[in-house]
Write a sequence for this structure.
């Protein structure tokens, strides 16, 4: 990841600040940076979203394609994640440099979405054992400014909210051969229910306290973070320690509580903005990349 | 407790340029002809083709007598002798440190061009060479002055004054070098209760004002005592103000920072970075600066 | 040897019928640990090695190599560890092609490799806090874990085995890392966590969690889990149960390490003295 190098005194300043609940940019320990969310930014996708969280900039595109259901789950569709660390974000990602980080994030997303019920996969099934929708979720890192995981999960949720999958019908003739018919009306779509899609809250341990939405500088001061996926109802669906340090059991309990609280607030804010955008409909002025 | 602010992006116009005072700059893009007059001399950022003087960078044309230069507005730092810079040590080498100063090549700080602890100017012994990492190690920040610029553009620094040296606790903000206004002094103890070093290279260091300048330390001992909360608030506010000014492309110098700080006082520190608040306080700052100029 | 993929006539994914035959495991004590067998120092060429077996079929063999001079000093970010002047810990996790009950996965298949890589990263993060990497500047430590048979709780067993192997190699460590796995049985009312689940329990589980603990320091070095959502309290309970399990496993690992040390000691002291 784009690493920043800090002097010992700078780190100390950050650590003391976190202790006093006043971070370098004036935030408290549980405050997020100001986030901008926009959906439907790339027209060749079934759904897309762009999220800017401080200097972190994420673009997610969802493409729905037809595929065959997995053997273990014949009546469900599935999601595929791919994370591309573009060299736009940092020159270190050039060539294969970003691959490791990309796989790590993709694996984490699989884990977060592994919980049944996060997305209604049954609704993606067209024809049991034969056809289903596969949602390819492609995440692009445009800029890294700390707290990638949270920003990516917000963008994924927004993109899934924005996803529209064409309605299809299965016609069966007398001989039993099946035919798939696509609806003529391009606006005749199904939408996904994203109420239970979790968001990731990363809590970075700095000194004796933990902060949410760490900047790159703060990440450099943190030895270990706990990544928690929280649904809008406050249920935890995934937990993962990242970083090379270790955590006290007590602080893990505290972090889970904080994660639940912050996660709920995050979902409320996100849902509000998605609904607001939706209610504006076509009257909303699209900003895209010219903002 | 937890504050999560989300919004839809809004296309924002940059705060309207101050303009109107006749100091409109002559802006050019690479390939633009600046002049066909052969009487001019070719400076940085230009080239001559078929007796025409053509710009090679995007930026503002500057003329000094017969010399025509184009100064890129967003670029890495081009060192000039006498500039005050803030830099970060990236490597400890034999008798010198490599310093990252946002310049196109790493800058160097020679062991011989710094005051050793104690402030005295003595001969550098072999022990000093071995103990270089004790003075400055990778990641440390220093303030220094540009001593000379090599032909390849690399910068050589010196810290041979008590005001330069290693930096302790504080916050670094990086802005474009062209936003830092050249002034007599780049060290300011602001009346709001904190100090800033405005490096010509766009590195800005904000730190708590110390009461007594410890002379004999020579700037190599760092105070590791926690900074009191009141100082932190001032520093955080200043940091956000500088970020706001830089985002809205206002020149940075002591007065603009101070005005911006005062304009921001009605807002919470963390709210300063919200786009609309940023716009509001920067506009107010600009108005006051214009009033000042009359 | 070239593999003739064209000869494979069956579907890409298939499972033997045995997989679907439920094994009649009745209800069990959720706090019961499966008997663990550990032996350190059994490979002759690696600097350190360990074998851990959980009764019920999980078998992990671990080897630790190094410390050696790192090929690329400074490490860079590619390898993950390093930075800060310390050494680098490189971990590998491999599943033997015949390790799982299902069909033999094609070795080197994309999905297989992804899963192994994730496990390797988890292994590294679990071990890094335990190893005094700062004592090995510019050096590289390699740990490879080979899962011979997956009978559930494989990653947890690999963590224990890998920390034993490192200790056996004489690497300076703050503490041993003890791994422990849990899963939540969907049959039980929510909140019933089982310690050290077997493979069948793991497959059925609604949620899974793997922990690693540094028992002497009482620090958690790995948390990796996911599944159907639960309250923080429920996960907290799992954490407590799992940490308790780690504490209970610790003496076994410690004993086996001391036994290995004693064996070496005996080899060093001349007989009769």
């Amino acid at each position: 990841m784009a690493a920043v190098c800090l002097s010992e005194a700078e780190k100390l300043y950050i650590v003391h600040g976190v202790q006093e609940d006043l971070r370098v940019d004036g935030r408290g320990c549980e405050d997020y940076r100001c986030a901008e969310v926009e959906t439907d930014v790339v027209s060749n996708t079934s759904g897309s979203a762009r999220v800017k969280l401080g200097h972190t900039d994420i673009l997610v595109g969802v493409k729905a394609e037809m595929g065959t259901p997995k053997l273990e789950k014949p009546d469900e569709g599935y999601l595929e994640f791919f994370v591309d660390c573009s060299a736009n974000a940092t020159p270190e990602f050039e060539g294969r440099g970003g691959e490791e980080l990309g796989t790590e994030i993709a694996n984490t997303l699989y884990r977060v979405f592994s919980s049944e019920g996060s997305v209604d996969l049954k609704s993606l099934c067209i024809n049991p054992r034969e056809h289903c929708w596969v949602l390819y979720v492609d995440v692009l890192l445009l800029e890294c400014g700390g707290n990638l995981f949270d920003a990516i999960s917000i963008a994924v949720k927004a993109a899934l909210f924005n996803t529209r999958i064409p309605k299809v019908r299965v016609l069966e003739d007398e001989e039993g051969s099946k035919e798939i018919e696509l609806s003529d009306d391009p606006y005749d779509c199904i939408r996904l229910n994203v109420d239970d899609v979790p968001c990731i809250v990363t809590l970075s341990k700095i000194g004796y306290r933990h902060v949410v939405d760490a900047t790159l500088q703060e990440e450099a001061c943190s030895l270990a973070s706990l990544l928690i996926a929280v649904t809008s109802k406050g249920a935890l669906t995934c937990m993962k320690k990242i970083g090379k340090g270790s955590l006290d059991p007590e602080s893990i309990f505290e972090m889970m509580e904080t994660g639940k609280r912050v996660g709920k607030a995050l979902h409320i804010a996100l849902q509000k903005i998605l609904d607001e955008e939706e209610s504006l409909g076509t009257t909303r002025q699209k900003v895209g990349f010219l903002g | 407790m937890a504050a999560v602010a989300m919004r839809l992006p809004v296309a924002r116009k940059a705060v309207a340029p101050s303009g109107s005072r006749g100091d409109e700059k002559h802006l050019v893009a690479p390939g633009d002809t600046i002049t066909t007059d052969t009487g001019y001399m070719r400076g940085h950022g230009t080239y001559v083709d078929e007796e025409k003087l053509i710009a090679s960078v995007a930026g503002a044309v500057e003329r000094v007598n017969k010399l025509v230069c184009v100064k890129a507005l967003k670029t890495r730092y081009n060192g000039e002798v006498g500039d005050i810079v803030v830099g970060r040590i990236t490597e400890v080498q034999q008798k010198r440190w490599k310093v990252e100063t946002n310049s196109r090549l790493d800058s160097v700080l020679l062991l011989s061009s710094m005051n050793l602890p104690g402030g005295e100017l003595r001969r550098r012994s072999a022990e000093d060479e071995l103990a270089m990492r004790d003075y400055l190690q990778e990641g440390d920040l220093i303030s220094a002055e540009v001593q000379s610029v090599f032909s390849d553009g690399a910068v050589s620094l010196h810290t041979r004054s008590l005001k330069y040296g290693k930096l302790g606790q504080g916050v670094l903000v990086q802005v474009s070098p062209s936003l830092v206004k050249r002034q007599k002094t780049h060290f300011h103890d602001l009346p709001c209760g904190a100090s800033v070093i405005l490096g010509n290279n766009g590195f800005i260091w904000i730190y708590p004002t110390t009461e007594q300048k410890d002379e004999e330390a020579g700037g190599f001992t760092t105070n590791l005592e926690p900074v009191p909360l009141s100082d932190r608030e001032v520093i955080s506010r200043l940091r956000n103000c500088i970020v706001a000014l830089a985002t809205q492309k206002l020149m940075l110098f002591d007065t603009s920072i101070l005005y911006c700080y005062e304009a921001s006082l009605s807002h919470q520190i963390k709210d300063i970075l919200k786009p609309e608040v940023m716009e509001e306080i920067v506009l107010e700052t600009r108005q006051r600066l214009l009033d000042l100029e009359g | 040897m070239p593999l003739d993929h064209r000869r494979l006539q069956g579907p890409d994914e298939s499972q033997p019928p045995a997989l679907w035959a439920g094994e009649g495991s009745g209800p069990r004590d959720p706090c019961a640990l499966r008997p663990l067998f550990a032996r350190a120092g059994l490979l002759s060429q690696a600097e350190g090695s360990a074998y851990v077996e959980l009764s019920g079929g999980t078998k992990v063999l671990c080897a630790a190599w190094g410390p050696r001079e790192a090929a690329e000093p400074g490490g860079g970010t590619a390898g993950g560890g390093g930075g800060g002047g310390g050494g680098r810990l490189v971990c590998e996790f491999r599943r033997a092609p015949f390790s799982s009950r299902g069909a033999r996965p094609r070795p080197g298949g994309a999905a297989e490799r992804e899963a192994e890589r994730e496990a390797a990263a988890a292994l590294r993060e679990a071990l890094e806090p335990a190893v005094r990497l700062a004592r090995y500047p510019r050096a590289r430590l390699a740990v490879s874990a080979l899962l011979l048979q997956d009978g559930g709780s494989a990653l947890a067993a690999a963590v224990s085995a890998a920390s034993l192997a490192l200790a056996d190699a004489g690497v300076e460590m703050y503490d041993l890392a003890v791994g422990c796995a849990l899963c939540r049985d969907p049959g039980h009312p929510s909140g019933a966590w089982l310690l050290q689940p077997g493979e069948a329990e793991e497959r059925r589980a609604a949620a899974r969690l793997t922990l690693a603990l540094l028992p002497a320091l009482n620090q958690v070095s790995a948390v990796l889990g996911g599944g159907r959502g639960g309250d923080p309290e429920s996960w907290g309970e799992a954490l407590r149960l799992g940490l308790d399990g780690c504490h209970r496993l610790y003496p076994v690992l410690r004993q086996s390490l001391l036994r290995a040390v004693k064996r070496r000691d005996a080899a060093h002291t001349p007989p009769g003295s």
Chain B has a mean pLDDT of 84. Residues 90 and 138 of chain B are 5 Å apart (CA to CA). Chain B touches chain A through 42 residues (CB under 8 Å). Chain B is about 20% helix and 30% strand.
